[in-house]
Amino acid sequence: MANNNDKIKIDPTEFAKLVLQGSNQQPDEADVKYIKRQLRLYLESLVLIDNFNDLEESRFDIAKETQRDKILQKIIERRY
Question: From which domain of life does this come (predicted)?
Answer without folding.
Answer: Bacteria
